[in-house]
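User: I've been going back and forth on whether these two constructs are worth ordering. Before I decide, could you fold them both?

Assistant: Sure. I'll take them in the order you sent them. The first construct and its structure tokens:
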Amino acid sequence: MHTPVALLLELGAILTALSLLGTIARRFGLSPVPLYLLAGLALGDGGLAPVPAARDFVDTGASIGVILLLLTLGLDFTVREFTASLHRHRTSAAVDLALNALPGAAAGWLLDLDAGGILALAGATYVSSSGIIARLLGDLRRLGNRETPAVLSVLVVEDFAMAAYLPLLVVVTSGGTWWQALLAVLAAIAAVAAAITASWRWGHHVGRILTHPDPELVLLRVLGITLIVAALAEIIHVSAAVGAFLIGLALTGAAADRARAVLSPLRDLFAAVFFLALGLSVDPGDLLPMLPAAAALAVVTAGTKLATGWYAAGRDGAGRRGRLRAGTALIARGEFSVVIIGLAAPAQDRLAALVTTYVMLLAVCGPVLTRFAPTRQAIPRPPAAQKRPAGGAPDEVSDAFQLPAPPRQGTGRGAAGRD
């Protein structure tokens, strides 16, 4: 079997460069995601050093990367926990839609776009990046925080909403009739309902099927089943990432622990490729002309996402710091916005340039803002604090005193107290 030398050289150079960028990011306590995105920008078409031989591998690896990110994220929660969280965050989903879709629709109207362009821009400003945010929560060790279930609930509702939105966008941009759009939306909703029902009723059988003493077989089984479910999800117009997330929810206890252990190195590799691919999809020459408009839209919708996270985390009882962390975590936009560009851009040249610039701004700045959001500080308690009553109220201003949190439901495994 002959392997192209150019492919090996380019992949080797890419992985080496990513490792160096990751080392730099870790040195300063940052997530490497923004640096991976900028590396992709430098290596893409119009960049400093294009990598044509490795492009197909990177594009394929990116799809696997977002699937693995959502799969391992689902492993940290159970179906019952997450269903309760989704039920509690119905109003959070409505707030998210109102606050974040309307600015995009208003911007599209001001730019004199047609109905398809307005709908596309509203979707691009509405949906956050599940892939980027999943990686950030892991990098920053916030999966156990009180606000994290609220963030995940908002993300998954957005991903499910995309199942109805994308068929609608296709019909509108192609000039279809209202009844064609209605049928497309109803079909997508029915498919999503069927997928959720199947996961709820038969998901507990998945752990028994995938469990095995041999780590190699666990890896092959979990990855194989996940990719099949992700493909089926795409067929019925549900995000492949949502399908992977449902598989993660179905695995609990020892099965989840074993799956997480064998998948972690593979997830880290393909996640880095995913972020690189987002940067590769952008031509730097397209960014500058639309930078002022994109920056203004980014500032507005970063604020609206912050408000969304603040509200959603508040429903889970998070303190001010937790609410701020939730809001900043939701700022990043990514893969779905790129999909929206692909569907609407053929007839909307200005839209493609605007959304591309907008996505890159928030994909890079969002993780940085998330990193510097207030976090719990590991400050030793003074002797006086140790004598406080066990039922004392949590301190929302200072995290110096790690007091017990009240019991709660609907949170991830190992969740932290109110913060």
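The second construct, handled the same way:
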Amino acid sequence: MIVSTIGQGILWSVLGLGIYLTYRILDFPDLTTEGSFPLGGAICVTAITNGVSPIVATLLGMIGGMLAGLTTGLLYTKGKIPVILSGILVMSALNSVMLFVMKSPNLSLLNQPKLFSLLGFANLPANFDVVLIGLIIIAIVIACLLGFLNTDLGQAYIATGDNEVMAKSLGIHTDKMKILGLVVSNGLIGLSGALIAQSDGYADINKGIGVIVIGLASIILGELLFGELTMIERFIAIVVGSIIYQLLILAVIKLSFDTTYLKFYSSVILGICLIIPELSRKFGNKKGGATND
């Protein structure tokens, strides 16, 4: 169970990295996440059941997420619709898109090839194939993100999030940077959805409900545990935070809590993680004041 949970944590960390690009760098919440995540899974599973290679199907799921992000970006920058409302509009529309793609609310991968079965020849123990492929994918994703963020385009993207007014004064097209961020972010989220769908063995249009909490928990846990970090360390911290979050959920299940309310437990865990830094600051200030007296 622990190996399986670690594998799940690695796959979910791709979602966390995608959310980080908008939530932390651009400093706005993108609710497209709850639509692009199941969309990636729906496209991937439908493609596999129609004879497409799992590798190609996974990439198609990622492209589906990118298109969802592009739509939100255009509504936000060109249509001047607030980013939260833009995300809600796209998220709602994607429910119908997924029904059109799958022709049903859910679709199984029973007896179908999966990306993880490609390592079947290696005679790996149970669930180690998910961990190994997950590590390979996350290494590629982090390498690509670091390469992108260290280019002039990537630095312009970071500058847009840091100070949009200053970025504009430097000649940076901030609207294009926002669109780019939403495209890349939702591409990673769609990729995560495709990977999780293959790991779970099915796609479902309701899989996106609450996934933004899981992604945020990965980010917050990583920041809570490791504090100030370089960019590569922060990405690794998100992966570690995602694994820890999944282990916490496993602990909740093992303690015989009713899994019907798993979303509630997820929100509680995230809420506690968000409160801890503030409590630490308050108690730290009180101790400092007492010492000074």
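Notes on the second construct follow. The chain has a mean pLDDT of 88. The two ends are 52 Å apart (CA to CA).
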